[in-house]
Design goal:
455 residues; elongated; mainly beta; 8% helix; 54% strand
Protein backbone atom coordinates (compact mmCIF):
# COMPACT_ATOMS: atom_id res chain seq x y z
CA UNK A 1 0.00 0.00 0.00
CA UNK A 2 1.35 3.40 -0.90
CA UNK A 3 2.15 5.82 1.92
CA UNK A 4 -0.28 8.52 0.77
CA UNK A 5 -3.10 6.01 1.20
CA UNK A 6 -1.98 4.95 4.66
CA UNK A 7 -3.76 7.45 6.85
CA UNK A 8 -7.09 7.01 5.15
CA UNK A 9 -6.77 3.26 5.41
CA UNK A 10 -5.89 3.30 9.08
CA UNK A 11 -9.27 4.72 10.07
CA UNK A 12 -10.35 1.12 9.53
CA UNK A 13 -7.27 -0.26 11.25
CA UNK A 14 -8.05 1.84 14.30
CA UNK A 15 -11.50 0.39 14.63
CA UNK A 16 -10.05 -3.09 14.47
CA UNK A 17 -7.44 -2.37 17.11
CA UNK A 18 -9.23 -0.92 19.99
CA UNK A 19 -10.08 -2.18 24.46
CA UNK A 20 -12.93 -3.29 26.61
CA UNK A 21 -11.64 -4.23 30.02
CA UNK A 22 -8.46 -2.24 29.62
CA UNK A 23 -6.97 0.59 27.69
CA UNK A 24 -3.29 -0.19 27.88
CA UNK A 25 -0.59 2.41 27.59
CA UNK A 26 2.71 0.67 26.78
CA UNK A 27 1.32 -0.16 23.37
CA UNK A 28 -1.40 -2.69 24.21
CA UNK A 29 0.10 -3.59 27.60
CA UNK A 30 -0.44 -2.03 31.00
CA UNK A 31 2.24 0.25 32.39
CA UNK A 32 2.03 -1.61 35.70
CA UNK A 33 0.33 -4.79 36.93
CA UNK A 34 -0.88 -4.52 40.51
CA UNK A 35 -0.83 -1.36 42.66
CA UNK A 36 2.43 -2.29 44.39
CA UNK A 37 4.22 -2.35 41.03
CA UNK A 38 2.24 0.52 39.51
CA UNK A 39 3.19 2.79 42.42
CA UNK A 40 6.82 2.10 41.48
CA UNK A 41 6.26 3.13 37.85
CA UNK A 42 5.71 -0.50 36.88
CA UNK A 43 9.02 -1.79 38.30
CA UNK A 44 8.42 -5.36 39.46
CA UNK A 45 11.25 -7.65 38.30
CA UNK A 46 13.08 -7.75 41.63
CA UNK A 47 10.36 -6.60 44.05
CA UNK A 48 7.86 -8.47 46.21
CA UNK A 49 4.65 -7.26 44.54
CA UNK A 50 2.08 -9.73 45.83
CA UNK A 51 0.10 -12.04 43.59
CA UNK A 52 0.54 -9.59 40.67
CA UNK A 53 4.00 -11.20 40.44
CA UNK A 54 2.41 -13.91 38.33
CA UNK A 55 1.74 -11.25 35.66
CA UNK A 56 5.19 -9.64 36.08
CA UNK A 57 7.97 -12.03 37.17
CA UNK A 58 6.70 -15.27 38.78
CA UNK A 59 10.05 -15.85 40.53
CA UNK A 60 9.35 -12.86 42.81
CA UNK A 61 6.61 -14.89 44.50
CA UNK A 62 9.47 -16.44 46.50
CA UNK A 63 10.34 -13.00 47.91
CA UNK A 64 7.16 -12.95 50.01
CA UNK A 65 6.89 -14.30 53.53
CA UNK A 66 5.85 -17.96 53.91
CA UNK A 67 2.11 -18.48 54.09
CA UNK A 68 -0.87 -17.84 51.85
CA UNK A 69 -2.08 -14.59 50.32
CA UNK A 70 -5.34 -13.76 48.56
CA UNK A 71 -5.62 -10.49 46.61
CA UNK A 72 -8.81 -8.93 45.28
CA UNK A 73 -8.20 -5.98 42.97
CA UNK A 74 -10.04 -3.46 40.83
CA UNK A 75 -8.56 -1.15 38.23
CA UNK A 76 -10.25 1.87 36.66
CA UNK A 77 -8.71 3.15 33.46
CA UNK A 78 -9.64 6.62 32.25
CA UNK A 79 -8.43 7.60 28.78
CA UNK A 80 -9.27 11.05 27.44
CA UNK A 81 -9.09 11.03 23.64
CA UNK A 82 -10.13 13.83 21.29
CA UNK A 83 -9.84 14.07 17.52
CA UNK A 84 -10.16 17.05 15.21
CA UNK A 85 -10.51 16.32 11.50
CA UNK A 86 -10.23 19.34 9.22
CA UNK A 87 -12.92 21.91 9.98
CA UNK A 88 -15.26 19.40 11.60
CA UNK A 89 -16.08 19.81 15.31
CA UNK A 90 -13.74 18.00 17.68
CA UNK A 91 -14.86 14.43 18.31
CA UNK A 92 -14.55 13.20 21.91
CA UNK A 93 -14.28 9.47 22.55
CA UNK A 94 -16.96 8.25 24.93
CA UNK A 95 -14.73 5.37 26.01
CA UNK A 96 -13.40 7.17 29.08
CA UNK A 97 -13.82 4.64 31.89
CA UNK A 98 -13.01 0.93 31.85
CA UNK A 99 -13.24 -1.43 34.84
CA UNK A 100 -10.56 -4.07 35.26
CA UNK A 101 -11.21 -6.61 38.06
CA UNK A 102 -8.61 -9.19 39.06
CA UNK A 103 -7.82 -11.69 41.79
CA UNK A 104 -4.92 -13.90 42.80
CA UNK A 105 -4.13 -16.58 45.36
CA UNK A 106 -0.64 -17.86 46.21
CA UNK A 107 0.83 -20.16 48.86
CA UNK A 108 4.53 -20.00 49.75
CA UNK A 109 5.82 -22.92 51.82
CA UNK A 110 9.38 -21.58 51.93
CA UNK A 111 10.76 -23.81 49.18
CA UNK A 112 7.95 -23.44 46.63
CA UNK A 113 5.24 -20.97 45.73
CA UNK A 114 2.18 -21.87 43.68
CA UNK A 115 -1.28 -20.47 43.03
CA UNK A 116 -3.78 -19.14 40.52
CA UNK A 117 -4.92 -15.74 39.32
CA UNK A 118 -7.22 -14.08 36.80
CA UNK A 119 -5.90 -10.79 35.41
CA UNK A 120 -6.38 -8.52 32.43
CA UNK A 121 -3.27 -8.20 30.30
CA UNK A 122 -4.31 -5.27 28.16
CA UNK A 123 -6.29 -4.07 25.18
CA UNK A 124 -7.48 -0.90 23.51
CA UNK A 125 -10.69 1.02 22.91
CA UNK A 126 -12.43 4.13 21.62
CA UNK A 127 -16.06 5.07 21.07
CA UNK A 128 -17.26 7.89 18.81
CA UNK A 129 -20.86 8.99 18.34
CA UNK A 130 -22.79 8.76 15.08
CA UNK A 131 -22.70 12.53 14.55
CA UNK A 132 -18.90 12.78 14.43
CA UNK A 133 -16.74 12.94 11.32
CA UNK A 134 -15.31 9.49 12.07
CA UNK A 135 -18.75 7.90 11.52
CA UNK A 136 -18.50 8.89 7.83
CA UNK A 137 -22.17 9.89 7.65
CA UNK A 138 -23.38 6.33 8.17
CA UNK A 139 -25.84 7.31 10.89
CA UNK A 140 -24.42 4.88 13.45
CA UNK A 141 -21.72 5.07 16.09
CA UNK A 142 -18.14 3.87 15.66
CA UNK A 143 -16.55 1.81 18.41
CA UNK A 144 -14.18 -1.04 19.04
CA UNK A 145 -13.11 -3.02 22.08
CA UNK A 146 -10.22 -5.44 22.34
CA UNK A 147 -9.82 -7.28 25.65
CA UNK A 148 -6.90 -9.55 26.51
CA UNK A 149 -6.90 -11.54 29.75
CA UNK A 150 -5.29 -14.55 31.36
CA UNK A 151 -5.88 -17.27 33.92
CA UNK A 152 -2.39 -17.77 35.33
CA UNK A 153 -0.98 -20.82 37.11
CA UNK A 154 2.44 -19.86 38.58
CA UNK A 155 5.12 -22.00 40.21
CA UNK A 156 8.27 -20.60 41.83
CA UNK A 157 11.14 -22.41 43.57
CA UNK A 158 13.99 -21.41 45.85
CA UNK A 159 17.10 -22.97 44.28
CA UNK A 160 19.39 -21.75 47.06
CA UNK A 161 19.27 -18.92 49.63
CA UNK A 162 20.03 -16.25 47.01
CA UNK A 163 18.55 -17.62 43.78
CA UNK A 164 14.91 -18.23 42.79
CA UNK A 165 13.32 -19.38 39.56
CA UNK A 166 9.71 -19.25 38.45
CA UNK A 167 7.38 -20.03 35.58
CA UNK A 168 3.72 -19.80 34.77
CA UNK A 169 1.28 -21.56 32.48
CA UNK A 170 -1.22 -19.03 31.17
CA UNK A 171 -4.62 -19.68 29.66
CA UNK A 172 -5.07 -16.58 27.51
CA UNK A 173 -8.14 -15.23 25.79
CA UNK A 174 -8.81 -12.33 23.45
CA UNK A 175 -12.10 -10.89 22.32
CA UNK A 176 -12.93 -8.11 19.91
CA UNK A 177 -15.96 -5.96 19.12
CA UNK A 178 -16.03 -3.57 16.20
CA UNK A 179 -18.47 -1.11 14.66
CA UNK A 180 -16.48 0.49 11.86
CA UNK A 181 -17.32 2.99 9.14
CA UNK A 182 -15.29 3.77 6.04
CA UNK A 183 -15.77 5.24 2.62
CA UNK A 184 -16.01 2.67 -0.16
CA UNK A 185 -12.58 3.68 -1.56
CA UNK A 186 -11.06 3.13 1.89
CA UNK A 187 -12.53 -0.35 2.03
CA UNK A 188 -11.39 -1.13 -1.50
CA UNK A 189 -7.81 -0.12 -0.67
CA UNK A 190 -7.63 -2.86 1.92
CA UNK A 191 -9.03 -5.73 -0.13
CA UNK A 192 -6.20 -8.23 -0.65
CA UNK A 193 -8.16 -11.17 -2.01
CA UNK A 194 -11.61 -12.42 -2.93
CA UNK A 195 -13.06 -15.90 -3.23
CA UNK A 196 -16.35 -17.26 -4.48
CA UNK A 197 -19.28 -15.41 -6.01
CA UNK A 198 -19.69 -13.04 -3.06
CA UNK A 199 -16.03 -12.03 -3.02
CA UNK A 200 -15.91 -11.53 -6.76
CA UNK A 201 -19.08 -9.44 -6.71
CA UNK A 202 -17.71 -7.26 -3.94
CA UNK A 203 -14.48 -6.67 -5.87
CA UNK A 204 -16.33 -5.92 -9.12
CA UNK A 205 -16.25 -2.17 -9.90
CA UNK A 206 -19.84 -2.48 -11.16
CA UNK A 207 -20.88 -4.64 -8.21
CA UNK A 208 -23.02 -3.91 -5.14
CA UNK A 209 -20.63 -1.19 -3.90
CA UNK A 210 -20.75 0.84 -7.09
CA UNK A 211 -23.64 3.07 -5.95
CA UNK A 212 -22.49 3.37 -2.32
CA UNK A 213 -20.58 6.17 -0.61
CA UNK A 214 -19.88 4.37 2.67
CA UNK A 215 -19.34 0.86 3.97
CA UNK A 216 -19.56 -0.66 7.44
CA UNK A 217 -18.27 -3.78 9.15
CA UNK A 218 -20.11 -4.46 12.41
CA UNK A 219 -19.74 -7.18 15.01
CA UNK A 220 -20.46 -6.41 18.64
CA UNK A 221 -22.18 -8.09 21.57
CA UNK A 222 -22.33 -4.84 23.58
CA UNK A 223 -20.92 -6.60 26.64
CA UNK A 224 -18.25 -4.77 28.67
CA UNK A 225 -16.30 -7.97 29.36
CA UNK A 226 -16.61 -10.05 26.20
CA UNK A 227 -16.38 -9.48 22.46
CA UNK A 228 -18.14 -10.99 19.45
CA UNK A 229 -14.91 -12.38 17.95
CA UNK A 230 -13.00 -14.68 20.31
CA UNK A 231 -9.82 -16.73 20.59
CA UNK A 232 -8.38 -18.82 23.43
CA UNK A 233 -5.15 -20.71 23.95
CA UNK A 234 -2.10 -21.35 26.12
CA UNK A 235 1.12 -19.42 26.66
CA UNK A 236 3.51 -18.77 29.55
CA UNK A 237 6.49 -16.98 31.04
CA UNK A 238 9.79 -17.64 32.85
CA UNK A 239 11.55 -15.64 35.54
CA UNK A 240 14.38 -15.52 38.06
CA UNK A 241 15.69 -13.44 40.96
CA UNK A 242 19.20 -13.28 42.40
CA UNK A 243 20.34 -11.55 45.55
CA UNK A 244 23.66 -10.20 44.28
CA UNK A 245 24.60 -8.86 47.72
CA UNK A 246 22.80 -7.91 50.89
CA UNK A 247 20.30 -5.20 50.01
CA UNK A 248 20.57 -5.67 46.23
CA UNK A 249 18.15 -7.93 44.36
CA UNK A 250 18.28 -8.55 40.60
CA UNK A 251 15.46 -10.03 38.53
CA UNK A 252 14.57 -10.95 34.97
CA UNK A 253 11.68 -12.50 33.07
CA UNK A 254 10.65 -13.51 29.58
CA UNK A 255 7.02 -13.63 28.46
CA UNK A 256 6.40 -15.84 25.45
CA UNK A 257 4.66 -14.50 22.38
CA UNK A 258 1.17 -15.95 22.22
CA UNK A 259 0.22 -18.51 19.61
CA UNK A 260 -3.56 -18.21 19.78
CA UNK A 261 -5.88 -19.37 17.00
CA UNK A 262 -7.63 -16.78 14.85
CA UNK A 263 -10.34 -14.73 16.51
CA UNK A 264 -13.74 -15.57 15.01
CA UNK A 265 -17.37 -14.62 15.32
CA UNK A 266 -20.20 -17.06 14.77
CA UNK A 267 -21.29 -17.83 11.20
CA UNK A 268 -23.73 -14.89 11.34
CA UNK A 269 -21.97 -12.83 13.96
CA UNK A 270 -20.89 -10.01 11.63
CA UNK A 271 -22.55 -7.69 9.16
CA UNK A 272 -21.06 -6.09 6.05
CA UNK A 273 -23.15 -3.25 4.68
CA UNK A 274 -22.85 -0.32 2.30
CA UNK A 275 -25.04 2.59 1.38
CA UNK A 276 -25.27 6.25 0.53
CA UNK A 277 -27.52 8.36 -1.64
CA UNK A 278 -28.28 8.98 -5.28
CA UNK A 279 -26.80 12.40 -6.10
CA UNK A 280 -29.41 12.96 -8.81
CA UNK A 281 -32.47 12.26 -6.65
CA UNK A 282 -31.11 12.54 -3.09
CA UNK A 283 -32.71 9.18 -2.27
CA UNK A 284 -30.99 6.68 0.02
CA UNK A 285 -29.22 3.82 -1.70
CA UNK A 286 -28.55 0.43 -0.15
CA UNK A 287 -25.65 -1.15 -1.95
CA UNK A 288 -25.16 -4.16 0.32
CA UNK A 289 -26.57 -5.74 3.48
CA UNK A 290 -25.05 -9.12 4.30
CA UNK A 291 -24.48 -11.33 7.35
CA UNK A 292 -21.46 -13.53 7.81
CA UNK A 293 -18.39 -14.46 9.84
CA UNK A 294 -15.36 -12.32 10.65
CA UNK A 295 -12.02 -14.06 11.14
CA UNK A 296 -9.19 -11.92 12.53
CA UNK A 297 -6.08 -13.70 11.35
CA UNK A 298 -2.98 -14.31 13.48
CA UNK A 299 -3.45 -11.50 15.99
CA UNK A 300 -0.95 -12.16 18.80
CA UNK A 301 0.39 -10.51 21.93
CA UNK A 302 4.17 -9.92 21.73
CA UNK A 303 7.10 -11.50 23.52
CA UNK A 304 8.46 -9.36 26.35
CA UNK A 305 11.87 -9.51 28.04
CA UNK A 306 12.58 -7.50 31.19
CA UNK A 307 15.44 -7.05 33.66
CA UNK A 308 15.40 -5.10 36.89
CA UNK A 309 16.87 -4.43 40.29
CA UNK A 310 15.76 -3.43 43.76
CA UNK A 311 18.16 -1.69 46.13
CA UNK A 312 17.48 -1.30 49.83
CA UNK A 313 19.05 2.14 50.14
CA UNK A 314 18.27 2.47 53.84
CA UNK A 315 16.20 0.97 56.63
CA UNK A 316 13.04 2.59 55.23
CA UNK A 317 13.88 3.34 51.58
CA UNK A 318 13.83 0.93 48.63
CA UNK A 319 14.62 1.99 45.04
CA UNK A 320 13.65 -0.13 42.02
CA UNK A 321 14.32 0.01 38.28
CA UNK A 322 13.21 -2.15 35.34
CA UNK A 323 14.03 -2.07 31.63
CA UNK A 324 11.62 -3.93 29.37
CA UNK A 325 11.76 -4.73 25.65
CA UNK A 326 8.44 -5.50 23.94
CA UNK A 327 8.57 -7.25 20.58
CA UNK A 328 5.79 -5.47 18.71
CA UNK A 329 7.62 -5.66 15.37
CA UNK A 330 6.99 -9.39 14.96
CA UNK A 331 3.37 -9.36 16.16
CA UNK A 332 2.06 -6.12 14.65
CA UNK A 333 3.33 -6.10 11.08
CA UNK A 334 -0.20 -5.93 9.73
CA UNK A 335 -3.80 -6.43 10.75
CA UNK A 336 -5.66 -8.93 8.57
CA UNK A 337 -9.18 -10.30 8.58
CA UNK A 338 -11.53 -12.31 6.39
CA UNK A 339 -15.25 -11.75 5.98
CA UNK A 340 -17.10 -14.92 4.93
CA UNK A 341 -20.68 -14.45 3.78
CA UNK A 342 -23.34 -16.73 5.28
CA UNK A 343 -24.52 -17.18 1.69
CA UNK A 344 -27.97 -15.60 1.81
CA UNK A 345 -27.28 -13.86 -1.50
CA UNK A 346 -24.22 -15.77 -2.68
CA UNK A 347 -21.38 -17.65 -1.01
CA UNK A 348 -17.80 -16.46 -0.81
CA UNK A 349 -15.35 -14.38 1.17
CA UNK A 350 -13.16 -11.31 0.98
CA UNK A 351 -9.80 -10.66 2.67
CA UNK A 352 -8.78 -7.30 4.13
CA UNK A 353 -5.36 -6.27 5.39
CA UNK A 354 -3.67 -3.07 6.47
CA UNK A 355 -0.02 -2.53 7.36
CA UNK A 356 0.88 -1.64 10.95
CA UNK A 357 4.68 -1.79 11.03
CA UNK A 358 4.91 -1.29 14.79
CA UNK A 359 8.41 -0.99 16.20
CA UNK A 360 9.83 -2.84 19.19
CA UNK A 361 9.33 -0.79 22.34
CA UNK A 362 11.72 -0.06 25.21
CA UNK A 363 10.11 0.76 28.56
CA UNK A 364 11.97 2.27 31.53
CA UNK A 365 10.37 2.00 34.98
CA UNK A 366 11.78 3.81 38.03
CA UNK A 367 10.31 3.82 41.51
CA UNK A 368 10.93 4.28 45.19
CA UNK A 369 9.08 3.02 48.26
CA UNK A 370 9.43 4.65 51.69
CA UNK A 371 8.18 2.98 54.85
CA UNK A 372 6.75 5.80 56.93
CA UNK A 373 5.76 3.48 59.76
CA UNK A 374 5.14 -0.18 60.40
CA UNK A 375 1.68 0.30 58.89
CA UNK A 376 2.21 2.83 56.09
CA UNK A 377 4.38 2.67 52.96
CA UNK A 378 4.30 5.33 50.24
CA UNK A 379 5.51 4.93 46.68
CA UNK A 380 6.30 7.10 43.67
CA UNK A 381 7.38 6.17 40.18
CA UNK A 382 8.11 7.12 36.61
CA UNK A 383 7.41 5.10 33.46
CA UNK A 384 8.67 6.09 30.03
CA UNK A 385 8.24 4.17 26.79
CA UNK A 386 9.10 4.84 23.18
CA UNK A 387 6.10 5.07 20.84
CA UNK A 388 5.83 1.76 18.93
CA UNK A 389 3.59 3.18 16.19
CA UNK A 390 5.17 5.12 13.31
CA UNK A 391 3.53 8.53 12.89
CA UNK A 392 2.16 7.54 9.49
CA UNK A 393 0.02 4.87 11.18
CA UNK A 394 -1.27 6.85 14.18
CA UNK A 395 -5.02 7.24 13.80
CA UNK A 396 -7.97 8.75 15.68
CA UNK A 397 -9.52 5.44 16.72
CA UNK A 398 -6.32 4.02 18.20
CA UNK A 399 -4.13 6.84 19.51
CA UNK A 400 -1.68 4.79 21.61
CA UNK A 401 0.59 7.81 21.75
CA UNK A 402 1.22 8.44 25.44
CA UNK A 403 4.83 7.86 26.41
CA UNK A 404 5.29 9.07 29.98
CA UNK A 405 3.48 8.12 33.20
CA UNK A 406 3.90 9.53 36.68
CA UNK A 407 2.70 7.25 39.46
CA UNK A 408 1.90 7.42 43.17
CA UNK A 409 0.97 4.61 45.52
CA UNK A 410 0.54 3.59 49.11
CA UNK A 411 0.18 0.50 51.19
CA UNK A 412 -1.52 0.44 54.58
CA UNK A 413 -1.55 -2.49 57.00
CA UNK A 414 -5.08 -2.53 58.39
CA UNK A 415 -4.34 -5.50 60.65
CA UNK A 416 -1.70 -8.23 60.92
CA UNK A 417 -3.49 -10.16 58.16
CA UNK A 418 -5.21 -7.45 56.10
CA UNK A 419 -3.61 -4.75 53.95
CA UNK A 420 -4.82 -2.14 51.48
CA UNK A 421 -2.79 -1.21 48.39
CA UNK A 422 -3.61 1.67 46.03
CA UNK A 423 -1.94 3.44 43.10
CA UNK A 424 -2.58 6.24 40.62
CA UNK A 425 -0.97 6.67 37.19
CA UNK A 426 -1.15 9.92 35.21
CA UNK A 427 -0.15 10.21 31.55
CA UNK A 428 0.05 13.86 30.41
CA UNK A 429 -1.58 14.98 27.17
CA UNK A 430 0.19 14.11 23.95
CA UNK A 431 -0.89 15.64 20.63
CA UNK A 432 -0.17 14.07 17.24
CA UNK A 433 -0.77 15.51 13.78
CA UNK A 434 -1.50 12.50 11.65
CA UNK A 435 -0.51 14.06 8.35
CA UNK A 436 -4.01 13.62 6.94
CA UNK A 437 -5.43 16.75 8.53
CA UNK A 438 -6.40 15.09 11.81
CA UNK A 439 -5.05 16.08 15.20
CA UNK A 440 -5.35 13.55 18.01
CA UNK A 441 -4.85 14.31 21.70
CA UNK A 442 -4.61 11.63 24.35
CA UNK A 443 -4.16 11.77 28.11
CA UNK A 444 -5.00 9.21 30.76
CA UNK A 445 -5.49 8.51 34.46
CA UNK A 446 -5.46 4.94 35.76
CA UNK A 447 -6.34 3.79 39.27
CA UNK A 448 -5.75 0.47 41.00
CA UNK A 449 -7.05 -0.68 44.38
CA UNK A 450 -6.25 -3.99 46.06
CA UNK A 451 -7.18 -5.72 49.29
CA UNK A 452 -4.66 -8.35 50.43
CA UNK A 453 -5.43 -11.06 53.00
CA UNK A 454 -2.60 -13.15 54.45
CA UNK A 455 -3.16 -16.33 56.46
Amino acid sequence: MKRHHTMRATFLAASLLAASTAWATNGMLMEGYGPEALGLGGAAQAVDNGTAAMANNPATLQLSAPGARFDLALGVLGPNVKTTVGNYPTAVSGGDSYLMPAFGWVRNNGRYSYGVGVMGQGGMGTEYAANTALAMGTGSDVRSELAVGRVIFPLAMKVNPVFNIGASLDYAWMSLDMKMAATVPMLAQMVTGADGAFGMALANPAGPLSQAQWARIDFSDNNDFTGKAKARGWTGKLGMTWQAQPGLMLGASHHLKTALPDMQTSARGARLSAGGYNPATGEAVTGLADEGRITVRDFQMPATTAVGLAWQAGPSLMVAMDVKRIGWASSMKQFAMTYTSAGDMMAGSVDFAMPQHWKDQTVLSLGAAYRVSDALTVRAGYNHASNPIPDAYVNPLFPATVKTHYTLGLGYQLSPSLALQAALSHAPTVSVNTGSGAQVTHSQKNYQLLLAYRY
